[in-house]
Amino acid sequence: MRSKGLKSIVLAAGLAIAGIGNATAPAPQAATPTTTVAPATTNAVPTTSAAPAVAAPADPMLVLDGGPDVRPVPGVGMPVNGHLTLQDQVTPNGRRAHWFHNAILLPVITAISVLVLFLLMWVMFRYRRAANPVASKTSHNTFIEIIWTAVPVIILALIAAPSIGLLAAQFKPAPANAVTLKAIGNQWYWTYQYPDHGGFEITSNMLKEKGQVQPGERARTDADGPALLATDNRIVLPVGVPIRLITTANDVIHSWAMPAFWIKLDAVPGRLNETSFTIEKEGVYFGQCSELCGARHGFMPITVVAVKPAVFAAWVKAKGGTMPAAGGTKPADAAATAPAETATENATGPVENATSAAPATNQAAATNVAGAGNAGQ
Ligand SMILES: [Cu+2]
Q1: Letter string b/e over residues 92-117, b meaning 16 or more CB atoms within 10 A of that residue's CB
Q2: What is the Å distance from ligand 1's center to 104 Cα?
Q3: What's the 249 CA to ligand 1 centre distance in angstroms?
């Protein structure tokens, strides 16, 4: 018993140093006589096999969902009470947009608002009836009219340059080595697919609070993240690697939004939307569905864990996926070359598709095989 306690202390200390504690696993009742840090970290040890984890902290797998045990940092990648400005950005586009907002838009808006306020106040006081009993009959002043036309044009032209550059950067297609994440909106949760990595799928539901769960059901803890933002299965993505985000939906329009990445992309049924981003910092980031999609629209959060590529590879393996061969043809490359063929097929066959697909969609038309006649009208 004594040696077991000692072992727990050593394990706990090792885990504390490695920073891979996990407070949510079932407690194995050991380590009570140790310091206050010990119980929380000892709980992380699912079996005695955690010892190698101390030696190799590069493989920090979470017990619960098989994901990396990365803890959210309060105030990072999440909204903060009373905070007014944008969240700190962890993607190049996000930093660029943040700079554009802070260095250009906000000063310009402030200067214009102050100028207009000043002019209004000046007119109200200087030309009030008591101070200016005889009103001016002036109806034109060419010089002023040129100024108030030209100055806004110049301001807009100056804003347009960085704005269009940013817009172009946001729509830049992902490079060939990008990791593809397909986000599928459902009422009211997200499913994710990793088509480059064997196509495995994860389903991400919001974690309920302690008082709301059924017996045996998992409740949110602080290690998962803030209330209403934490999910049971977190998306894992590598840092420093371009991510190709593809969104779609199964029922109504949703929107995949991650404020810290400067990403908000509608997920539309029957359509694929695509954008790309590169996460620069490891951490846990929270977002939400941002398209009003029904009764539980506010309860389908998004949680992304950004980790080193090696940890991402380990997680993919743990999920039963495969890593694309380095430098070889990966599924994405195959897909990239495929559209040429499918495009030509489609080019010859849209008429067929239209007649066979149309009847299946709507009420009256459903009985109208092959679209003959106008039964739907
Ligand atoms: Cu939604």
Answers
A1: ebbebbbebeeeeeeeeeeeeeeeee
A2: 33
A3: 9
What span, in angstroms and rounded, lies between the C-alpha atoms of 182 and 191?
8
Task: Kindly give the distance from the C-alpha atom of residue 257 to the centroid of ligand 1, in angstroms, as a whole number.
Answer: 10
Residue given tokens 């260095």 in the structure block: 103
Q: What angle do CA 4, 6, 12 make, to 5 degrees?
A: 100
Q: Which two tokens stand for residue 30?
A: 């050991």
Question: pTM above the 0.85 mark?
Answer: no
Give 268 Cα–ligand 1 centroid separation in angstroms. Answer: 10
Ligand 1 center to 267 CA (angstroms): 8
Centre of ligand 1 from the C-alpha of residue 152, in Å: 39
Domain ranges of the chain: 92-130+142-170, 179-376
CATH 2.60.40.420 fits 179-376, yes or no: yes
* Ligand 1 centroid, distance to 206 Cα (angstroms): 12
Q: Ligand 1 mean position to 34 CA, how many Å?
A: 46
pLDDT along the chain (377 residues), means of 10: 46 42 40 38 40 42 64 89 91 95 94 96 94 89 94 94 92 91 95 93 92 86 89 93 95 96 96 95 94 94 94 89 68 42 38 36 35 36
Instruction: Report the alpha-carbon distance of residue 58 to residue 252 in Å, rounded.
Output: 40
